[in-house]
DNA sequence: CCAACCCATGACAACGTTGACGCCGCATCG
DNA sequence: CGATGCGGCGTCAACGTTGTCATGGGTTGG
């Protein structure tokens, strides 16, 4: 009966026509502006309801200029990684208090897709962008950044761009892990890491290397496996290490997914090696997994702080926030070297 | 030196002026249209680079009409819940293959915030919307839906709206859990559930009740605790159940967060009750946790399928897909009732 | 040598909204 | 009683882009 099917979404002009007022009055009535007669306002509202009208935010945004957007973008490697989702949670809560809405997109650690996502969000004129970037250069964002769009880099620093940044203390955390294990007497420590191109990986490796240097463990890199990007790869890597003639007496798993893979590999092992992981893992306390912990929510909150500050007009130079780490000894990291460890399998 | 600071983002007109061509030619050159002299094209490109120009997607979208958007929205309760993030992962992969970009926002199970997020995305004219809705009515979306915007409801069905839906087989899964536990001899089963208003909760409860009816367990609801929405609340709920004079000999934890809370509560327990959880949990296999499992990624893929079909112009009536569940017996669910269970604490 | 054609480019309008401004009529005030 | 004010409403232009149509110069072919 109603002829509104298929006609596309109705415009303000149609609402105005139906309610017998000018387009501008309809805009005023629906926009909550003051100078409208109550009777007119309700007539316009009725017409809008009848047509199923919804404001065209695209047109509004164009007319008003970019500063009215309430959307903030977050680009991360993987939604399903609890580190990122907790970071997103902390960020979101603080943005919401300011009426800003967080939209998150996953790059799958693909630099090209990351660029396309960033483009899509920037073209849509988001109010700001928070990125855990997988790319190796960010000059691409220089123009936007100069034009005043707030950028905050989290977890991984920008390259060739001076922008606000929130990082973990990767070096220190990994050094703690190394010190902890060598102090317990371990000399053969299996180290399993993520994609070698990631700055977090390199920083953690540096920190661990520093601990090895201090402890006088020269050949530690013999037990290093890199590019274990998912749980299954990590499990295989650990199984490989354990199968060696002189297997490691301890493991340092350099992120949460790798720790999960290691725990899977160690299942039912009669004399499991000691284990320290970077990042918290679910049920880590229940399972007694020693980890280098930190606070992803706080990272999100600090990122929100930097971003909101820029949105409020702060113009100073790029700032950098470092989130501390602390080692939680829960049992797995305190196991001594197995006596028979020198024997091959 | 360059006077481009603070001037806002440059427009096509400025690029055109700098390169000495008309706005339309600049548009053609940057848009990759064919009829442009190579030399002109590179001149325009240089000017764009120099100014740090980026296409204004808002204006383009307005000019071209909504059908060009490549953004699909996903609204979920909580980013940090692995069920949702895996669903998002499955959805995203299939959308990406079609060049569509998924943006995810978290409603925090707040119906009002959900509405505002949906409004923001719909006003921005996303190409489609996938919702795990926490609201109790969706007539609000009726107009958009009639105007052809594709909606897919996941995990929870729409109310007062006929739209495509992907659901879990909650009833069957919960019934399986109940049958499994009663078959092992349990008669006092602690049941811990999420917010009682959620349809998933009600469906699971119905399924469990059906199993109890068949097994002849009349007073099962005496051991029911609802509205345990986070891990801490679930832990408390389980501790409360265990502290009763006649504690349950088994637990049915109705979602993944609740299962985590229960595992925490059961830590170090000398004779833990049997446990079956709904949803998979990380390390569930390592820990030997019996669960009613399903495939969240598949849920995402099916949602993508329905959505893409609509985007491709399918106009049929609303469809409903049900994702099966299966019980994974890993140990925790097969523990028999503890003999001394009738004794109080 | 002129017609027919194509290529590169430009002028113009339109997408849907809102800010700036103007106009009319009625109430208020000196 | 005329000036002033203001409430209610309309007209117009502009945001930045792209589709349509037009134009001028060069090439091709009969």
What does this structure look like?
The structure is a homodimer of 345-residue chains. Chain A has 345 residues and is α/β, with parallel strands linked by helices. The first copy, chain A, folds into three domains: 12-55, 434 Repressor (Amino-terminal Domain) (Orthogonal Bundle); 68-167 and 296-324, Response regulator (Rossmann fold); 170-294 and 328-342, Rossmann fold. The first copy, chain A, is 42% helix and 15% strand. Chain A has helices at residues 12-19, 23-31, 38-51, 57-64, 82-96, 111-123, 142-146, 170-183, 199-215, 231-242, 256-266, 284-287, 296-311, and strands spanning 71-76, 101-106, 128-131, 151-154, 164-168, 189-192, 224-225, 250-253, 274-278, 290-293, 320-323, 326-328. In chain A, strands 2-1-3-4-5-11 form a six-stranded parallel beta sheet, with helices on both faces. A six-stranded mixed beta sheet of chain A has the order 7-6-8-9-10-12, sandwiched between helices. In chain A, strand 9 (274-278), helix 12 (284-287) and strand 10 (290-293) form a beta-alpha-beta unit. In chain A, helix 1 crosses helix 3 (38-51) and helix 2 packs across helix 3. Chain A is elongated. The first copy, chain A, starts with 11 loop residues before the first helix and ends in a 17-residue tail after the last strand. At the A-B interface, helix 4, helix 5, strand 2, helix 6 and helix 7 of A face helix 4, helix 5, strand 2, helix 6 and helix 7 of B. The first copy, chain A, binds a DNA duplex (30 and 30 nucleotides) through residues 11-13, 21-25, 27-28, 31, 34-37, 40, 55-65. Chains A, B: It holds the Pfam family Peripla_BP_1. Chains A, B: Keywords: DNA-binding, Transcription, Transcription regulation. Chains A, B: GO terms for molecular function: DNA-binding transcription factor activity; transcription cis-regulatory region binding. Chains A, B: It comes from Micromonospora chaiyaphumensis. Chains A, B: This is Transcriptional regulator, LacI family.
């Amino acid at each position: 009966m109603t002829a509104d099917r298929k006609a596309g979404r109705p415009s303000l002009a149609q609402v105005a026509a139906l309610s017998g007022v000018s387009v501008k009055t309809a805009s005023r009535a629906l926009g909550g502006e003051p100078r409208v007669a109550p009777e007119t306002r309700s007539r316009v509202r009725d017409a809008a309801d009848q047509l199923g009208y919804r404001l065209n935010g695209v047109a509004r945004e164009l007319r008003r200029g970019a500063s009215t957007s309430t959307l903030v973008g977050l680009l991360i490697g993987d939604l399903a990684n609890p580190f990122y989702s907790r970071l997103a949670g902390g960020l979101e809560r603080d943005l919401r208090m300011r009426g800003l809405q967080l939209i998150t997109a996953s790059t799958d650690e693909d630099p090209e897709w990351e660029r396309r996502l960033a483009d899509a969000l920037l073209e849509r004129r988001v109010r700001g962008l928070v990125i855990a970037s997988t790319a190796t250069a960010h000059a691409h964002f220089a123009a936007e950044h100069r034009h005043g769009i707030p950028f905050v880099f989290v977890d991984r620093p920008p390259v060739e761009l001076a922008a606000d940044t929130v990082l973990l203390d990767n070096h220190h955390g990994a050094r703690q892990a190394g010190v902890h294990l060598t102090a317990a007497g371990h000399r053969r420590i299996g180290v399993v890491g993520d994609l070698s191109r990631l700055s977090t990986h390199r920083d953690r490796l540096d920190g661990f290397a520093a601990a090895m240097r201090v402890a006088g463990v020269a050949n530690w890199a013999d037990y290093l496996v890199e590019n274990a990007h998912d749980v299954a790869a990590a499990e295989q890597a650990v199984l490989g290490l354990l199968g060696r003639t002189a297997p490691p007496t301890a493991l340092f798993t350099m992120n949460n997914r790798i720790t999960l893979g290691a725990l899977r590999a160690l299942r039912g092992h009669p004399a499991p090696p000691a284990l320290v992981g970077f990042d918290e893992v679910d049920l880590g306390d229940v399972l007694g997994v020693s980890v280098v912990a930190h606070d992803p929510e706080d990272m999100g909150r600090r990122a929100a702080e930097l971003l909101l500050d820029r949105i409020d007009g702060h113009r100073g130079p790029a700032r950098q926030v470092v989130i501390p780490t602390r080692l939680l000894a829960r049992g797995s990291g305190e196991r001594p070297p197995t006596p028979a460890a020198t024997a091959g399998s």
